[in-house]
Amino acid sequence: MPVLPSHNSLMSEISRRSFFDRMTDGLYGVALTSLIGQQALRAAEKQPFHPAPIPENLAPKRPHFTPRATSVIHLCMQGGPSQVDLFDPKPALKKFHGKTAPRELTGNAVFEKDRTGKLMQSPFEFKQHGKAGAWVSDALPHLAQEVDEMTIVRSMYNVHPNHEPAIYKMQSGQTFPGHPVFGSWITYGLGNENQNLPAYVVLADPSNRLPTNNVDNWMSGYLSPLYQGTRMKATGSPLLNLAPDYASVDQVARTKQDLLKQLDRLHQKQRPGQMELEARIQNYEMAANMQLEATETLDISQETPETLAMYGIDEKETDSFGRRCLLARRLVENGVRFVQLYTRGQIWDNHSNINKSLRTACGQTDLPIAGLLKDLRQRGLLDNTLVLWGGEFGRLPTAQITSAAKMNVAGRDHGPYGFSAWMAGGGVKRGLVYGNTDEVGYASVENRVSIQDWHATILHLLGMDHEKLVYERNGLGERLTHQFPTRVVHDIIA
């Protein structure tokens, strides 16, 4: 066995000099540790605020501060409604009709050669409406009577001139798929008031033609599938297989459902941390609860003839979109957090004969949307329901034609640089026109509002801080506005 040195022999090897050398090493170490600790503390203080994880369920959740709105109806006008033909009149277009845009009117704007054409005046007549005197064209005679409920933002802009990337940007804040859409972020942050209905409902075209980008428009990305949109039909059964195909005694059905819940929870307990499993179980449980409530909520036969007429239901031109607008009101009235409506295809993508094609798009939607605003107001729902209207971009002020001889049947190409959108109810100012484009309506130049500004303002009206609504993923704090420069547009908030 090795012989250990005695205590006396160890002490004899340490001289006075070596003793103080070692003590100094220790002091240096303590000092270094202290400095490192202080640096780590300062670094931690500079880190962005990451709140506690939001529970993965649809129970109502407390917002960051008192909200102005509690639900949202998004009227998604895919295709790009023309701002200079609807909400943003430009006298300069009449003056320079058929001519190249003077440089002093467009600043540093660059017109792409294959998208140029000549400046084209609007074929529609504009008049001022409401107490605020907002300008609206005769293509929207019914909405023109509702401008005192709206904030019309004339200075929106997007970052891409093509539909697919621009729609991804409008929905999720990025120009490519894979990120949660803003409806999913809202339901992630706030949950739902009614546990027997989905938090996020999509009312797409009943002909089963999906909008551009298909189901990506309402997907939850890296959030739980619990927060993605649930598509419902406006006619017939709202969901496939909603009702059982056989008769059953109520007590037997309830007992069966209770047993299934217990088995589901036992299965889940053995597989912790599986987000998709939890979402699937909750969706099946909701489906059972929906068998009664969803059918009743979407049954518009309970409405009066006056209400149906207000939405244009049973009229050939307006019936389809009118039914969905009425269902949107019934859904928010019954506690649904977010409802999204889509028109048929891209009826606003008016590349040719805009005089006819834009009138057709307005004819299908103008009366139903005006009816929705009136109905919400009459029922006291508009104060806490935020209504959004707009597309992924607008149109260029130039004619899209092959020759000057065809100006009378010209359309307009995509214009992401400046366009109009509006909000109503839910805490926004009434009768306000905000921001401006240049003299010909090419680009926004005053009080510009980006897509992320729009998202942040919507969240703010719902009582959420866009910097605090965070989802932790791979060590990053993901959020709807990402890392883009963003502002809440307080000027439009009442």
Task: Provide a short characterization of the protein structure.
Pfam families: DUF1501 (PF07394). The chain has 494 residues and is an alpha/beta fold.
Number of strands: 16
What's the number of domains?
2
CATH class of the largest domain: Alpha Beta
Strand proportion: 5-15%
Q: Give the uncertain stretches in residue-range form.
A: 1-12
CATH fold-level label of the largest domain: Alkaline Phosphatase, subunit A
Please trace the helix and strand order, writing H or E for each element.
HHEHHEEEHHEEHHHHEHEEEEEEEHEE
Which whole number gives the mean pLDDT?
86
Helix/strand/pairing category: alpha/beta
The value of Rg in angstroms is: 29 Å
User: DSSP helix count?
Assistant: 12
Can you characterise this structure?
There is one protein chain. The chain is an alpha/beta fold and 494 residues long. It has 2 domains: 71-234 and 300-492, Alkaline Phosphatase, subunit A (3-Layer(aba) Sandwich); 237-297. Helix content is 34%, strand content 13%. It contains 12 helices and 16 strands. The strands form 5 sheets. Strands 6-5-7-1-8-11-4-12 form an 8-stranded mixed sheet, with helices on both faces. Strands 2-3 form a two-stranded antiparallel ribbon. Strands 9-10 form a two-stranded antiparallel ribbon. Helix 7 runs antiparallel to helix 8 (275-297). The termini are far apart. The relative contact order is 0.20. The model is unreliable at 1-12 (pLDDT under 50). It comes from Gimesia alba.
